[in-house]
Amino acid sequence: MMKKTNGIHHVTAFAGGPQQNVDFYAGVLGLRLVKKTINFDAPEVYHLYFGNETGSPGTAMTFFPSRGARKGKVGGGQVGYTTFAVPAGTMDFWEERLDKLDVPYNVTERLGERFVQFADPDGLQLELAEREEGRLSEWAFGGVPADKAIKGFGGALLYSIAPDQTIGVLTNVLGLDKVAEDADYIRFRAAGDIGNVIDLHRAALPWGAGGAGTVHHIAWRADNRPDQEEWREHVLKHGFQPTPVVDRQYFTAVYFREAGGILFEIATDDPGFVTDETFDELGGKVQLPEWYEKHRALIERNLEPITVRVLEGDQA
């Protein structure tokens, strides 16, 4: 039986200043900072996770923010646009909100669907789409009430250096179904109801360059460790070279780079973020894996203090 992912688990990107990153994703977009930890491979850098009230699979946008980071260039081998799903009928609210907070945007259409596109302060390309699917977020913050809050990922627009190869991975490896196409784009759909619409730019694009304002990887959902092991074998059988399973504390991960240049990850839905903090405490304290606890004092001294705060524009 062919394996089928339920869609996006999380998207991870590079960013510049940490406070600027928090102000945009929590302050402007109203997402919850559900985990404040470090890059396990570079402990002097935060790893910040934003999502719905618990950062459930399909909602977690994560960042490695580093002040003074080299700016990247969006291009082939990357996620071109990260799509957030908002409740149907709320786009007017979001356009008014972006206007109020001086975030430039443009309205566009792709494959018959309307998108509001904008960029974060580092230039990361984002878009909003109204979707009926997916449950409402229960998180309200600043000027974003829960009934208008971002539900999670709507999907992504992928930029490939070899689109035909990427099509093969999306359909034959990840089990997505091709559901629409036109002269410029092809649309695929995953089995889940969030993070499930993946568009591919039909023409090959030249390589992008990693750095602030670009996506590092896009992660796809696996149910649990046994399912992830099956995914790893599945990826191997299709000729790719997946990494061993890596413990990321809140999920386990397997990485492989597809032939169109995009770094893919298979991540488990469990155990999630309510493991080392209670629901009410999520995102409040720097959480470290056990092997870094003995270095906590040094690690915290090297991290720039950050605060989740209501923006001035929402205080009037």
Automatic annotation (TrEMBL):
Pfam family membership, one: Glyoxalase
Domain VOC: start-end pairs: 7-131, 152-269
PROSITE patterns according to UniProt: VOC (PS51819)
Domain of life of the organism encoding this protein: Bacteria
Name this protein carries in UniProt: Ring-cleaving dioxygenase
Organism, scientific name: Paenibacillus protaetiae
InterPro entries, alphabetized: Extradiol_RC_dioxygenase (IPR052537), Glyas_Bleomycin-R_OHBP_Dase (IPR029068), Glyas_Fos-R_dOase_dom (IPR004360), VOC_core (IPR037523)
PANTHER family for the chain: RING-CLEAVING DIOXYGENASE MHQE-RELATED (PTHR36110:SF2)
Keyword Lipid metabolism in record: no
GO molecular function: dioxygenase activity
Keywords from the named record: Dioxygenase, Oxidoreductase
